[in-house]
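Dear colleague,

Following up on yesterday's call, I've attached the two folding results inline so they're easy to grep. Please treat them as preliminary; we haven't cross-checked anything against experimental data yet. The first protein's sequence and structure tokens come first.
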Amino acid sequence: MMKRFLAIAMAVVTLSLSGCGYNTLQSTDESIKASWAEVINQYQRRADLIPNLVNTVKGFAAQEQQVLLGVTNARAKVGSIQATPELINDPQAFARFQAAQGELSSALSRLLVVAENYPQLKSDANFRDLQAQLEGTENRITVARNRYIKAVQEYNVTVRSFPSNLTAMLFGFKEKPQFTVEDEKAISKPPVVDFGAPAGAK
């Protein structure tokens, strides 16, 4: 008799939690973790391309020390931030991560603009391959970030909405930080270099 009572009680609790958004909070939280992991993977892919890119540019434009150093320092700053899963629960840490990635994006854009002034660099096969990989990675970053943004939006709405907000408070679910509007404008324009015909070619 006691076992039957416990089973009924557990069923009632389960239904109550489901009706109060507990299951939605759990599923959207897991979705955020998965999408965040993909964001980190793509950012890491970009960071891994930078040393070869910098060295290739240096071979043709060693005098551009300030730009090259800017990219190297921005990459180092990104690497100094531990992008752990817990980071998405800390608004201040998330903002630092976002700012560092933004600085790296800006530094890369400046580097690619400088590359336009060196026809031999632009026509170098290694540089063209690295730039193509970088552009592809930037596009994958945009896709991964958009998935993360949508997952966070769904989760945050659940955290704020009644009655799921009561469940969120009870179980410690809090709103997650989001990428800023300004940053979204920047990320929508990944660095691109037009590899047309080299200077002087017809």
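Below is the second protein, in the same order (sequence, then structure):
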Amino acid sequence: MARSTIGDVFDDISSFSHAVIAYVGDDGYPINVAADFTADKANGTIKLSRPRIPVEAREGAEVNVTFSHIRPYPGVGYDQRRYVSVWGTVTKVNGSLEVRPERSHGWDEDKMSFFELCERSVPSAHRYMKKLSEERGETVKTQMSLGWLIFLATRVPFLTATFVPILLGAMIARNDGASAWWLFALALLGGSAIHLGLNVANDVSDATSGADFANVNPTMFSGGSRMIQYGLVSLQTMRAVSAGCYAVGIGIGLYLTFTRGIELLWIGVAGIFLSIFYTAPPFKLVHRGMGEIAVALGFGPIMVLGTYFVIAQQLTFEAFYASLPVAIFIMLVLYVNQVPDRPADEKTGKRTIVVRLPKDAIVKGYAISVVVAFALIALGALTGIMPIWTLLALATVPLALKVHRALTSHYESPYELMAGMGQNIMLHLFAGLALTLGYLIDIFV
């Protein structure tokens, strides 16, 4: 973060105990040496003790003076990181070196997180690589192995949102006496392809709208893949990847429709519609505060019922009912993950539900949604709609409580909230797997 006035610089360096002066020697090699210092704010100068080395900075040469502090944090790493770096010409006065700051740069971890500092440095990195490319006469850009590019650009870890409902739908069908693992595999492949296409399309949309470029607080679970922002993958390539994923998913869906029943077509059409228009115009559902509804329907009833029909060639109320808790839990993943993105989304006109509502309403909405999800599980198991063993999913209640506490305490702090975001994803995964395990136990019992 740049310092705007000389006064800012002198206020900042007052808390440091030493400085490091850097300059280029007569032989062209850089020299860095520690020095004691005193700051004279009234005169706008910094006085440094002359280094006891043969090669001193030449009179009138530009030097850099850096003031820094860091505290070791045993077992973790470091904290209290901060620095101020100034540049100016040096003058030799009464046995000391005197520097008048002309420009400065600095960072204080208490004021800006390390992750935000990195994000705010991305434009500078792009400018540096552009200048380096011009100097070398060849393109210099960030690079990554193809495997990692695919993994990160498509956000493969989020496929748990697809695995859970498709596995649940297949297990419900098996409990009803229908089983075809090759059909389950096809449904899983098709659903995963659509999901990956959606992930990439969402990155494209947030890049073209400016939302991801404006986001300086991305986390492991929010803010997109950052592949476009870091210059690792072009916008055109991301569009092509998204289209390719959709083509695979739609192709598998059409094959299953022709071989298992025309009823599947309408489920598939609804799923594709929600997936594409989640971010795409003219509907842009997530921009209208309807992203949670789209995600709940797509990764809840549509995937569970679609998988059930592919295997059993019929639809049941039980499959629909069992999909509802899963739908709520995956909806809450998006719900919480949008919280860190709120400032950037609001700035670029992406009016998600967390942009539209205040903190208290969002926190209360999470609590109500979790209670409804667990109530549906309990009611379904106790009334016989679902097997009694699905009550196992209630074991995930403590996870929900942890997420609620994190959301309450760290709503304005993206990186402190990140642990809660991870627990929220685990809530969906473990609750969904527990429901599936309940059906599996019922099959054998």
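For the second protein, one point worth flagging: Residues 81 and 109 are 5 Å apart (CA to CA).

Best wishes,
A.L.
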